[in-house]
């Protein structure tokens, strides 16, 4: 099998991830339980609330969000719906 058969006619691996430029979403923390480490963010502009887990908060030290706090984040599809990644306060 030659390179063209393995990598495709243009030399690009067909299973390689494709980097897509995205614009970070913004929203307001609806609620966050610091003891359990999760909560939800209400998106600016509407749409479903987005699940927020403490492990996705970009911060040093104790990572938590405060109700009413403005944040920016990437939205990905989780097991149970939209979830926030790379959460940063603004």
From TrEMBL:
Its main location: cytoplasm. One of its GO terms (cellular component) is cytoplasm. It comes from the Bacteria. It comes from Kitasatospora phosalacinea. Keywords: Cytoplasm. It is found in: Cytoplasm. This is CSD domain-containing protein. Residues 24-89 form the CSD domain. CDD domains: CSP_CDS (cd04458). SUPFAM superfamilies: Nucleic acid-binding proteins (SSF50249). InterPro entries: Cold_shock_domain, CSD, CSD_CS, CSP_DNA-bd, NA-bd_OB-fold. SMART domains: CSP. GO terms for molecular function: nucleic acid binding.
């Amino acid at each position: 099998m030659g390179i063209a058969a393995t990598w495709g006619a243009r030399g690009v691996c067909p299973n390689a991830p494709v980097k897509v430029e995205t614009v970070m979403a913004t929203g307001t923390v609806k609620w966050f339980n610091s003891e359990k480490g999760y909560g939800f963010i209400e998106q600016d502009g509407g749409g479903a609330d987005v699940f927020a887990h403490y492990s996705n908060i970009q911060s040093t030290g104790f990572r938590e969000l405060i109700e009413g706090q403005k944040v920016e984040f990437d939205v990905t599809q989780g097991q149970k719906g939209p979830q926030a990644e790379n959460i940063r306060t603004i």
